[in-house]
Design a protein that fits this description.
By secondary structure, this protein is mainly beta. Helices cover 9% and strands 63% of the residues. The protein contains one helix and nine strands; from the N terminus they run ββββββαβββ. A hairpin with a 5-residue loop joins strand 4 and strand 5. It is elongated, with a radius of gyration of 18 Å.
Length: 115
């Protein structure tokens, strides 16, 4: 089973993987002068995925960064079952952890946010 696929291409299994679900509120949401919340939820269950890979090759690092480079892509992700959503990449980091004999060892982290 693949944990993450972007536009149909399976990514390596991440070492750390977290799915968060959030609500989106309208601009009308806020607190009154006496502190009572007035909430106008417009959408619930918006997914955000945080994934981290350790000890990737340069090719694997490039594959993840290239897959998450477009402004929008389809993500199939595991959250009890396989779910599909249109997402974009928030923060993407690639840290070089070691380099030897022309080969790099990378640590990559990506945040994927549902539209």
């Amino acid at each position: 089973m693949d944990i993450l696929k972007i536009d149909g291409a399976a990514l390596p299994a991440p070492h750390e993987y977290r799915v968060s679900l959030s609500d989106l509120d309208s601009a009308d949401t806020g607190r009154t002068e006496d502190g009572v919340l007035v909430r106008a939820r417009v959408r619930g269950g918006v997914a955000k995925i945080t994934a981290r890979w350790l000890a990737l090759s340069t090719d694997q690092c490039a594959a993840i960064l290239n897959a998450t480079a477009p402004d929008r892509f389809t993500v199939e992700y595991f959250f009890g079952q396989t779910r599909t959503a249109q997402m974009y990449a928030g923060t993407r980091t690639a840290d070089l952890r070691a380099a030897r004999e022309g080969q790099g060892v990378w640590e990559v982290a990506v945040e994927l946010v549902e539209f």
